[in-house]
């Protein structure tokens, strides 16, 4: 069982929006504004899509957005496209002993 | 362009050893902490270990402490993971990941986070 809880799967049709949640505790997600989201196409390198809860690296479409409320962070993908189909993982800084925790991953299917 | 390329994975018997390497390019390697992160089959990601830029400070997840050793050769832009006393539960794809080099503005604490990853190398521990 992973430290952060994500839904196993979500799905949506092209053009729709989906939201993926990531639930932790006050010692990780709720305690720091250092949540990241990674997109992973199997066999490829994971790619950071969101960092520091809601910041987008250059080159990441603004269809990807992040937010946080309490111990739960969320990734929202709007205007779904076929190439968005991938696994998505959240991570959170968790202090100078645990360092970083990950979620179990969510498989996004674009119908 | 930042590139990370892992190698050294393979099949090893329980109790055996393996050394992974990660060749880095496209950034000033000796300025950043580097980590290993793994993904067991059907499971989520798990942070394994970090080594800071000078190669002195190292930290490990409890699951590998005492069995794995992280190291780096800044002259070769290469990260290593020596894995000893391997167990079936160490079976995973192992990724190297570059730290983004962020420090919290209030506490000046280093915040471990990753901006680039390699494609991974598979380690299978089985008899």
Write a brief structural summary:
By secondary structure, chain A is mainly beta. Chain A has one helix spanning 95-98; strands spanning 9-12, 18-23, 35-40, 47-50, 64-69, 72-77, 86-93, 100-102, 106-110.
Mean pLDDT of chain A: 95
Report the principal-axis shape of chain A. globular
The largest β sheet of chain A comes out as: 6 strands, mixed
Individual helix count of chain B: 0
Main β sheet profile of chain B: 7 strands, mixed
- Rg of chain B, nearest Å: 14 Å
Low-confidence stretches of chain B: none
In the predicted model, the low-confidence regions of chain A spanning at least 5 consecutive residues are none
Describe the protein in words:
The complex is a heterodimer of chains A (111) and B (127). With 111 residues, chain A is mainly beta. Chain A has one helix and nine strands, in the order E-E-E-E-E-E-E-H-E-E. In chain A, a hairpin with a 2-residue loop joins strand 5 (64-69) and strand 6. Chain A is globular and about 40 Å long. The mean pLDDT of chain A is 95. Chain B has 127 residues and is mainly β. Chain B is built from no helices and 13 strands. In chain B, strands 2, 4, 5, 6, 9, 12 and 13 form a seven-stranded mixed sheet that branches. In chain B, strands 1-3-8-7 form a four-stranded antiparallel sheet, with no helix packed on it. Chain B is globular. The model of chain B has no long low-confidence stretch (mean pLDDT 95). The A-B interface holds A 2, 6, 32, 34, 36, 38, 43-48, 51, 57, 89, 91, 93, 96, 99-105 and B 4, 37, 43-47, 50, 59, 95, 100, 102, 109-120.
Question: What descriptors fit this protein?
Answer:
heterodimer, A: 111 residues, mainly beta, six-stranded mixed sheet, three-stranded antiparallel sheet, 1 helix, 4% helix, B: 127 residues, seven-stranded mixed sheet, four-stranded antiparallel sheet, 13 strands, 51% strand
